[in-house]
Write a structure and sequence with these properties.
This protein is of the alpha+beta class and 173 residues long. The chain has one domain. The chain has 5 helices and 9 strands; from the N terminus they run H-H-E-E-H-H-E-E-E-E-H-E-E-E. The strands form 2 sheets. A 6-stranded mixed β-sheet has the order 4-5-2-1-7-8. Strands 3-6-9 form a 3-stranded antiparallel β-sheet. Strand 1 and strand 2 form a beta hairpin. The protein is elongated and about 45 Å long.
Amino acid sequence: MKRFLTAASLGLFCMAVPLAFAQDKHTHAAHSHGAGTLELSVQAGKVSGNFEIPMESLLGHEHLPRTEAQKKAMAQLQSGLAAADYFMTLPAAAQCKQISLKASSSMFEGKKSEHSDLDIDFAFDCAQPAALTEIRIALFAKHARLKTLKVDMVGPKGQKSVTLTAKNPVLRF
């Protein structure tokens, strides 16, 4: 019985450790100005993922807004993030509907931070999954400080990792 309990405890520990790291993914990502990340899943008509981008790459600063211009820029960013087409566009032929969208940042909450990021979690359901052939990252056109976006994805053709740029803002799969 003692061996069974020890084995069971070890098994639970081995399952809990990866879960703890998975839940804390945002605190361990590299923070590099001008560069963001996108984790993406495109499977069976479902598109979901998470962007993580330094606020400096979007606003030009990571401190709480001080000037009227900074306050206006942050308000514009927050209002733009209410709709997914502010940061990405999916093919119209895929007939995708936004299921969920959550944009968060310590700056939006008025919290001071040395390195503030924007996290965007999103999900879509697409009626015509065969038309899901690409995603255009609209953030590049709106935020010139954003230079690169590292994309790790699982899609219809398997896993892939690419880096998108302002000159090449389209993820094809």
